[in-house]
Design goal:
Layout (H helix, E strand, L loop, with lengths): L1 E5 L9 H16 L3 E7 L4 H5 L8 E5 L9 H14 L2 E7 L2 H13 L3 E6 L11 E6 L4 E6 L5 E5 L14 E4 L30 E5 L10 H10 L2 E4 L1 H5 L20 E5 L5 H7 L4 E6 L12 E4 L2 H16 L1
Parallel strand pairs: 1-2, 1-4, 2-3, 3-9, 4-8, 5-8, 10-11, 10-12, 12-13, 13-14
Antiparallel strand pairs: 6-7
The structure holds flavin-adenine dinucleotide.
Family: Belongs to the ETF alpha-subunit/FixB family.
Keywords: Electron transport, FAD, Flavoprotein, Transport
GO molecular function: electron transfer activity; flavin adenine dinucleotide binding
């Protein structure tokens, strides 16, 4: 028996969410008194693979060929399921990233496993049970999911488990896999970047604005603050509906769900549908001129005032800190 963690890379590099997933998977391996194996797909430098030992992966399997250069859901799921079988792993952990969301159910079907997506804590294993806490109903509730089948697939919500560094270098082994035509039913032909800015789902800091900004011409200060902080920009639904900002920035129940370390909400009322996508942010700062705005109820820090006065002051303050 072992635990397998899929270590997704972005252009050959691992993000913090992957170190979180390894640390989480290692803690599960400790709970089950077993070892942790990682599987990497695509082109990653050997030194970076060995480095994964630091977070708890004793062994890293790696597979790379031309067909696997870009993410292919079916093929990646087949490889991860095959690696789980070969390693006798009955728990598979991955990050609940864009690709993790597509992979978890596919791996679940291949391994006839129970699937818990969006886990936020270590499983409770008292009395031989295996219960995972996860978010439900667009982050409005928690669910305690008892995983009853022998095989289990768990995807971890980014930013919900801390990175632990206490291991040595991992051993790296090549993994071979006989792909079938059905593994490549869809192929990515080309990736066209919509923007060079920080991608919203991966951002640790997010500056977001709503209808309180009055119009698209006022987003200059939002972008300037975000650039200074190294943050991504986001917006409420009416803002993207009105074409003030692109739909890729819309967060909430019907937009992207995010959980950054810092979410700064400017001129956003805090409707329940907006909160559904942002309430699991670690620290929430709300700037709103209405002291009764519902967003203040979930804010860690609140500033009651006019965004057009406060944001320029914040920009100056950040600039002077950087100077
Ligand atoms: P408003 O509600 O108009 O709020 C503007 C805020 O700005 C107010 O609180 C006001 O006090 C403040 N303000 C005004 N001027 C200033 C100023 N100068 N300085 C500071 N503050 C100022 N919404 C989402 O965001 N995401 C979703 O995914 C989403 N999904 C939905 C799904 C459904 C099925 C439905 C019915 C609605 C959904 N909505 C969603 C819409 C949601 O209900 C709200 O209408 C929306 O979030 C409001 O956006 P807002 O806060 O930008 O605008």
């Amino acid at each position: 028996m072992s635990v397998l963690v899929y270590v997704e890379n972005a252009e050959g590099k691992f993000k913090k969410s992957i170190f979180e997933a390894i640390s989480y998977a290692k803690a599960i391996a400790n709970q089950l008194n077993t070892n942790l194996v990682a599987i990497s797909i695509g082109n990653v430098a050997t030194a970076d693979l060995e480095n994964l030992g630091k977070y708890g992966a004793a062994k890293v399997l790696t597979i790379n060929n031309d067909q696997l250069k870009s993410f292919v859901n079916q093929a990646y799921a087949s490889i991860i399921a095959e690696a789980a079988k070969k390693e006798n792993a009955n728990v598979v952990v991955l990050s609940n990233s864009f690709s993790g969301k597509g992979l978890a159910p596919r791996i679940g079907v291949k391994l006839e496993a129970a699937v818990a997506d969006g886990a936020i804590e270590l499983p409770q294993t008292d009395g031989g049970k295996f219960i995972v806490k996860k978010t439900a109903f667009s982050n409005k509730a928690f669910a305690m999911v008892e995983m009853q089948s022998e095989n289990k697939v768990i995807s971890l919500t980014p930013n919900s488990y801390k990175v632990v560094e206490d291991g040595a270098a991992a051993t790296v082994e090549n993994f071979s896999f006989e792909a079938k035509a059905s593994d490549f039913r869809t192929m990515i032909k080309e990736i066209v970047r919509a923007t060079d800015k920080i991608s919203l789902p991966d951002a640790e800091l997010v500056v977001s604005a709503g209808r309180g900004l009055k119009g698209p011409e006022n987003w200059g200060m939002i972008e300037e603050l975000a650039d200074l902080l190294g943050a991504a920009t986001a917006c409420s639904k009416p803002v993207s509906d009105a074409d003030w900002r692109p739909h890729s920035e819309h967060v909430g129940q019907t937009g992207i769900a995010i959980s950054p370390n810092l979410y700064i909400a400017i001129g956003i009322s805090g409707a329940i549908q907006h909160l559904a996508g942002v309430s699991s942010s670690k620290v929430i700062v709300v700037i709103n001129k209405d002291p009764e705005a519902p967003f203040f109820k979930v804010a860690d820090y609140g500033i009651v005032g006019d965004a057009f006065e406060i944001v320029p002051k914040m920009i100056e303050a950040v600039k002077s800190l950087k100077a």
